[in-house]
Amino acid sequence: MAKEWAKPFYNSSAWKKCRKSYIVSVFNLCERCGEIGKILHHKEYLTPENINNPEVSLNHELLEYLCQECHNREHHERFGVVQYGLKFDENGELIQVKEVKPWWE
């Protein structure tokens, strides 16, 4: 969900046009796994300082269309305490919960 300061941008016609044209350009497919995409991800995270700069917020070079799982991996692997596909069990041991193939393979 968009942060309060970002809502006017995400409701703008400029964003809606940019989003639509980008998704069409990648055939509605996740750019990492090839499944149907869902979220247009900004590679350079938007902030209150850069959101109104079209070179950042509307630049196709800084966008990536992702499915829900790949988008979650982007955020959880980058900012989570453990790598995607791993968790701590009841004994505090790190275990694999799901076999995960790296998105780049």
| Fraction of residues in H or I helices | 25-40%
The largest pleated sheet is described as:
2 strands, antiparallel
- What sequence of helices (H) and strands (E) makes up the elements? HHEHEHEE
Overall mean pLDDT stands at 86
Taken from the alpha-carbon principal axes, the silhouette is: globular
Number of helices: 4
Q: What gap, in angstroms, lies between the N and C termini? A: 29 Å
Structurally, the number of domains stands at 1
Structural class: alpha+beta
Which stretches are poorly predicted, pLDDT < 50 over at least 5 residues?
Answer: none
Biggest sheet: strand arrangement: 1-2
- Strand element count: 4
- Rg from C-alpha positions? 16 Å
Oligomeric state as shown: single chain
Beta-strand portion reads 5-15%
Quick synopsis:
The chain is α+β, with helices and mostly antiparallel strands and 105 residues long. It has helices at residues 7-10, 13-25, 54-57, 68-79; strands at residues 39-42, 63-66, 86-88, 94-96.
